[in-house]
Amino acid sequence: MTEIRLAESSGTKVLVSRPAARILFPRIESALQANANELIFDFEGIRVVAPSFLDELLLLTEKVAAFPPEGVRKTKIVLRHYPPGMDATLGAIGHAHDAEVILDDKGSWIFTRSA
User: Are 115 and 68 in contact (CB under 8 A)?
Assistant: First the structure.
């Protein structure tokens, strides 16, 4: 399990672009190459998230996970402290990435798919 705190990593409270997500690629790549089966994006301190940011974040995880060292593995993406009112598009984005999207009992959104 690897956790990426987005407010610290991005230096902003507003994540509204694909380039903002691409800044995180080295951390995502490092986590997934270390064979992390769970990647947590902590949105604490983030006020706004655009669908394009989240879509790019998932595309980046797919880019790394597309070539796992030992066959296909499951990758669990957890969105912790996701901003309230910003979750209307999560299901559609998950569907576009062939991911099952659920809200757990702790209030975190979980995307699960085959890598």
Answer: yes
